[in-house]
Request: fold
Amino acid sequence: MVRNVSEEIFADFLNALDRVKNFPKRVHGKIGGLRYSELTLIFAIGELREKNGNVIATDLASSLLVSRAAVTPTIRVLTKKGLIDRKVESSDGRKAGLFLTEKGESVLKAARDYHYRLFSEFADSIGVERVVEFTVLLNLFSSFMVEKI
Reply:
C-alpha cells in the first residue's frame, strides 16, 4: 500500500470528520426544541415532497437508508407534536401519505434558515471562492467513498 499522506494529516482528517459528525447533536433543541432525529425526518419529508409530491413511510426510510420500523416511532412523535399528519391514499388504504402541517412547514423553514445562516457565516469567514473549492472537494470525497464502500 502506497502512503501519500502522513499519519498526522490522516489523524487531523479523522478528527475533523468526527467533529462534523457530532454537529447534529449540538443543534439538538435549537430549532423548535426538536431532537436531531425529528429534524432529520422533517427535512427528509420536505425534500421528498419537493421531488415526488407524496411521501410514504417506506420512501422516507429508504431515503434515510434505514428501515421503516426505524422511522415509525419518530413519525408518531412528530404527529403527536402536530408537525406532520397522515392522509390515507384512496388507491391503497394501507398507505398513508405523510405531509408537514403548517407548524411543521414553519419548523422546516426555521431549520433551513438556521443552516443557511451558518453556511453564509462560514462563507463570509473564509471567502466564497474557498467555499466553492471546499464544496467541490467534499463532493469528490463523497463520490470516492461511495464508490469504494
Summary: The helical segments are 7-27, 36-52, 57-64, 68-80, 102-126, 128-148.
